[in-house]
Amino acid sequence: MGIMRIQNSLNSILRNAAVSLLVLLCACNAAWAKAHGIGFIIGDKGETRKVILHTRNVFTLGKGFPFIEKPVAIGIADNSPAGESVRIEFDPRICDWISYDAYALDSDRLVLNGHDRLSRNYFVAVWDWRENQLRTYNNVGSRSSESISGISPDEKWAVSVPSDRSEGLIFHDLQQGTSSRLFNGLNVYSPRFSPDGTQWAFFSRDELILRSTRGGKEKRVPISPVNGRWRYSKHLTWSPSGRYLAGIVNHDRTDLVIWKSDGAQMKIVTLPPARSLGWPPIWGADEKGVYVVLGNEGLVGKWEPLQIKLISIK
Q1: Which residue among 42, 138, 139, 306 is least crowded, i.e. fewest CB within 10 A of its CB?
Q2: CATH code for residues 32-312
Q3: Which of 282, 288, 270, 235 has the alpha carbon at shortest distance from 101?
Q4: What is the distance between the alpha carbons of residues 297 and 276, in angstroms, rounded to a whole number?
Q5: What DSSP state is assigned to residue 231?
Q6: Is 44 exposed, middle or buried (0-12, 13-18, 19+ CB in 10 A)?
Q7: Nearest Cα residue to 225 out of 185, 271, 190, 265
Q8: Cis amide bond preceding 66, omega within 30
Q9: CB neighbours (10 Å) of residue 3?
Q10: How far apart are CA 277 and CA 211, in angstroms?
Q11: CA angle 179-233-180, nearest 5°?
């Protein structure tokens, strides 16, 4: 009987400990919810709206013990009293991770990159935030954390970057369900389709490469400065009409570079020093200027308020 009482006492202690741990984890889970800025869009009246990735710390016994940060929703913050005008939850069965980056496909749609729990399905998600619909394209997401997949405006094609960027890129026909590897041996960054879907372009360290969706030979545009070579380029963005491109280029400084759609360089603007230039530039609707984001708000290192600068293309 004494042994049974001891056993029951132990079981009760373990149950109470488990309940306490569960309560603690739930409290931590709620308390450690976070909101990260991962990009921004330009509203109908020229106002800037921040794209917010909501995450929550989740208890785990695996990699990342005791907690890992998991994405749970994405929203758009504006100046309304509610602070967030629209928000959509992720399906946890599909989404275990989302890149801390996003780009605008057009004025209504944002593109995200993520993968499932086992890192087997790297997907592209297109969020139509006006309709608040999230479409997921499986197995066409970039495995490189530095390059979200490009997707055509009609959502018929996608271009992804393997985990080893020197493996070139993978061109996906989403209607036919086929894929082909191109530009093997090149380091690929930021593949993007033109607004009319007739061209796509990407950076390869020292070059801007343009190609027609109908195939044929690509055009290679060197982007080396006067005194040496670029380290790497990223965040390529087409203007709304497809007449221009803009991108962030890093070497001993950080520049915004603007080209015409045929690759002719128009302008180089050296940006002020900032801890983070991880968000893509955004064209104004009138194509007279490009918005760039400076600063670092809640991702890594020292927190610094974001600054949004409009740079004229003239």
Answers
A1: 138
A2: 2.130.10.10
A3: 235
A4: 9
A5: S
A6: exposed
A7: 265
A8: yes
A9: 7
A10: 27
A11: 10
**C-alpha of 120 from chain center:** 19
| Side-by-side strand order, sheet with 254-260 | 232-238, 244-250, 254-260, 265-270
Q: Which residues contact 294 (CB under 8 A, 6 or more apart)?
A: 271, 272, 274, 276, 277, 306, 307, 308, 309
b/e for 131-152, b at 16 or more Cβ within 10 A?
A: eeebebbebbbbbbebbbbbbb
Residue partners of 90: CB distance under 8 A and separation at least 6: 71, 72, 73, 74, 98, 134
Nearest CA among 279, 288, 278, 298 for reference residue 243: 288
C-alpha distances (whole Å) from 64 to each of 58, 91, 114, 146 are 10, 21, 18, 21
Predicted confidence at residue 93, as pLDDT, reads 87
Q: Which residues of the chain have pLDDT under 70?
A: 1-32, 59-67, 79-83, 164-166, 224-231, 274-278, 296-304
Give the three-class secondary structure for 139.
Answer: coil
What does the pLDDT read at residue 23? Answer: 41
Residue 304, token pair as written in the block:
């610094």
Q: So where are the chain's domains?
A: 1-31, 32-312
